[in-house]
Design goal:
Strand content: 5-15%
CATH topology: Arc Repressor Mutant, subunit A
Organism: Clostridium amylolyticum
Keywords: DNA-binding, Transcription, Transcription regulation
Number of domains: 1
Pfam families: HTH_5
CATH architecture: Orthogonal Bundle
Number of strands: 3
Order of helices and strands: HHEHHEEHHHH
Helix content: 55-70%
CATH class: Mainly Alpha
Number of helices: 8
Distance between the termini: 38 Å
GO molecular function: DNA binding; DNA-binding transcription factor activity
Structural class: mainly alpha
Protein name: Transcriptional regulator, ArsR family
Largest sheet: 3 strands, antiparallel
CATH superfamily: Winged helix-like DNA-binding domain superfamily/Winged helix DNA-binding domain
């Protein structure tokens, strides 16, 4: 991992939205898709870029993949958390994502139920 790879990974709106909702904890890729309103292909592309830059860690549980911030990278590059925090406080889009995340967590739904379309954020 190098600094330029990290900076390039941070230079995309969708990737910043992903980091915004992951700042408070781990999420499954299907949860990320629903909360951000993006398709699986788009989510995977951005998650791969963040994982390759070692900004995110992931773990597999059965058919699900869970992502979280890589704490080693957060310690090495302190500015990442600052960038996430600053952007999320200033933009209405990040605030909307946070509201959807909050509603999702309060719903008690599982990934299987999300795949069945039981939660809608229109």
């Amino acid at each position: 991992m190098n600094l330029m790879q990290v900076i390039k990974a941070l230079g995309d709106e969708t990737r910043m939205r992903i980091l915004n909702i992951l700042k408070d904890g781990e999420l499954c890729v299907c949860e990320i898709e629903v909360i951000l309103g993006i398709n699986q292909s788009n989510a995977s592309r951005h998650l791969n870029k963040l994982t390759n830059a070692k900004i995110l860690d992931y773990r597999k549980v059965a058919k699900y993949v869970y992502y979280k911030l890589n704490e080693d990278t957060m310690r090495e590059y302190h500015f990442i958390k600052e960038v996430i925090q600053k952007n999320t406080m200033e933009s209405k889009y990040y605030k909307k994502d946070n509201e959807r995340l909050k509603r999702y967590r309060a719903s008690g739904l599982t990934c299987d139920e999300l795949k069945d379309g039981k939660l809608c954020f229109n």
